[in-house]
Each structure stands twice: as C-alpha cells, then as structure tokens.
Design goal:
The protein has 8 helices and 8 strands, in the order H-E-H-H-E-H-E-H-E-E-H-E-H-E-H-E. By secondary structure, it is α/β, with parallel strands linked by helices.
Length: 223
Amino acid sequence: MRMRRKNNLETRLSVKDRHLLFVESDDFYNKSEDERKHLFDLFKIFGNNNPLYLDVGCGKGGFALQLAKNNPNINVIAVEKISNVIIEGFEMAIKENPNNCMFLNCGAENLSYYFKDGSVDRIFLNFSCPYPKNTYKNRRFTYKTYLKVFNRLLKDEGAIELKTDNAAFFEFSIESMSQFGFKLKNISLDLHNSKYAENNVMTEYEKMFSDRGMPIYRLEAHK
C-alpha cells in the first residue's frame, strides 16, 4: 500500500534545523558532477571525530535514533530517499535533540557525493526492500553497484551489517557480497535466538515480523 503524502511536506522539510543535513533536489541528475558534490565536514556537524555509522534506507528513523541514544560515543546519519518517510524521523530528532544523530534525504546510490572515501565505520541495511522480481535485482542495496558505493565509503576495517526477514534476499546478499570480496562474519539465521540478540536494536519492521514468529536473518560483511 502506498503511503499517503504528508500534509505540508515541503514546508516541514524546509525547517532550518541542524538534524536535517541536506535534501536532495528533484533535478539532482540534471546537474554536472561538480554541482552534485556536497561533501560534509563531519567534525563541523558533530563537533568530534567519533566513529560514523550510516543507517541506509532508515525509514522513519527509529532505529537510528535508538542506536545513537544507546551509543553516545558514535555518530549516526540516517539516510532515506523518500521525503514522505524521512520527515517523521527528522521531526522526532527535532523533539529529542540528539547531538549524535542526523538525517540525510538522498538516494543511497549518491552517497559518495556527500561523504569522503574511507570516512564511514559501519553501514546498516535494515529490512531493505528485497525487490523479489529478478528483473529488479539491480535495485537491491546488496547489488554490486550499491556495494561499490558502500565499499568506497567504508574505512579499511569497516563493515556492513544487514538484517532482513526475506530468505531469498538474504541468500542473494550472501552471494553478491561474497563475489564482491566482502568477508562474511557473524551470520545468524535466527537473530533473536542467537548470541547477537543481546545488543540488537529493533526496528519497526523487525518487531512486526518477529511478533508473527518469523525468523530474522543477520550478517556482517567486512572489507
């Protein structure tokens, strides 16, 4: 079901608040390479050089906000392409006013225009759209074109952490990430009944699927 467009969305996104770093314009792809670049000064944004975590496809932002709250010594940037979705996390950040959690309204394929190579410690892919039809596999966040972007952003010791309820997407991700050259570690076919459950931060989708008795698949892909 398509989400109903939020009232006054453009006005709400235009609120000047430090927690929304940038809103990618509709004409982004019509711009030159130089015009697309908007590299962030992370020290200026956060006031420190703490490790940087990206929550890519953050949805409503609950995971990112909780992760930042649980880990005050890391910086979190929640990335979401759909303005109608990210607005909820942005407005929650305005209310809670965390110093270490910001939001970025952009496509995941464009992240290299905002972050320098080797500047990210960890990338989270939580319940990304699996695009089950094989003809759409190039839209999956674990397809090689996205992995190329993530690999550029990650530090040498960096990693991608993935969670999903979709077994087919999980199998595809294992194959795709392995072929790309990532080393897969800490794999679980039932996260909530594994040793990785203790420090796990639940997402909205995760709770919904778990309440239905569905297993949650989890892995780490290291450079």
